[in-house]
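Quick one, probably user error.
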């Protein structure tokens, strides 16, 4: 079992399947293949994936088969300290234009952003373990929860945030309505050049109320998913290793990770479906 890397129940299933007929073998084989590619998928996401492959199966049966195979998702409950970028009123504080109205049927109309912190551990020249930090600045399109731009740095700085902002602005220039960019009241979002860049591009600036994380819950939810699926329970030993893992995950999140609210499509699939419906309507 140590050699195969499978859970005990999965190992025994593989051994027994050649000894006796299993009416659910075809479902179990498909589940194992799907889980190999999507290691953090639970029964709710695996059910529509099986249906896409042509299997007629419901959630209850998928849950039962996953129990038999020993591949139910085990969540890590650890939570890291939340990065706080608020340093008081150091520039312009915009009003909360979104007011938790996160839904939109228009791509690139409502964009939100925030910063989160990660840690990695490395050995210094004396052989002592040191803690390094990494900061992620993503921009999300609230139309489909897609991450449309991001920057990864060793320390929070205005330059990287401006680069991510400019990339997000360029990416959303095709919006047919006036755009709104939302954030918390962090120091970077209060910078004069940040506000001026938004104004120069005819973009509304919106900010959460001080100390109210629910005013930016879509981004908080993304950070939670991100850390749950690629960070908690893992140890990274360099900035480069952690940055590569985050980048790989964001690509996976955008292109492959399905969401119930998107009709069990990934953000990119949902956007493509919308675009095609406009073209052929």
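Nope, works fine. Designed sequence:
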């Amino acid at each position: 079992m140590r050699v195969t890397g499978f859970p005990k129940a999965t190992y025994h299933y593989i051994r027994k399947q050649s000894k006796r007929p299993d009416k659910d073998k075809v479902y179990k084989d498909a589940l194992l293949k799907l889980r190999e590619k999507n290691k953090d998928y639970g029964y709710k996401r695996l059910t529509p994936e099986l249906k896409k492959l042509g299997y007629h199966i419901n959630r209850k049966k998928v849950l039962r088969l996953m129990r038999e195979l020993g591949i139910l998702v085990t969540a890590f409950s650890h939570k890291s300290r939340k990065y706080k970028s608020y340093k008081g009123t150091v520039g312009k504080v915009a009003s909360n234009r979104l007011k938790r109205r996160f839904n939109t049927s228009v791509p690139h109309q409502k964009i939100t952003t925030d910063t989160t912190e990660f840690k990695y551990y490395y050995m210094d020249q004396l052989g002592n373990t040191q803690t390094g930090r990494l900061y992620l600045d993503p921009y999300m399109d609230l139309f489909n929860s897609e991450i449309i731009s991001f920057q990864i740095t060793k320390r929070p700085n205005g330059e990287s945030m401006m680069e991510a902002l400019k990339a997000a602005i360029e990416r959303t220039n095709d919006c047919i309505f006036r755009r709104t960019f939302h954030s918390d009241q962090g120091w970077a979002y209060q910078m004069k050049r940040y506000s001026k860049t938004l104004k120069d591009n005819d973009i509304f600036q919106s900010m959460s109320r001080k100390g109210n994380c629910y005013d930016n819950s879509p981004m908080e939810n993304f950070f939670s998913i991100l850390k749950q699926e690629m960070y908690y329970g893992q140890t990274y030993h360099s900035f480069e290793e952690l940055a590569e893992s985050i980048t790989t995950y964001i690509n996976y999140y955008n292109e492959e990770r399905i969401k119930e609210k998107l009709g069990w499509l990934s953000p990119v699939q949902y956007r493509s479906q919308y675009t095609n419906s406009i073209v052929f309507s």
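Residues 110-279 form a domain with the Nucleotidyltransferase; domain 5 fold (CATH 3.30.420.10).
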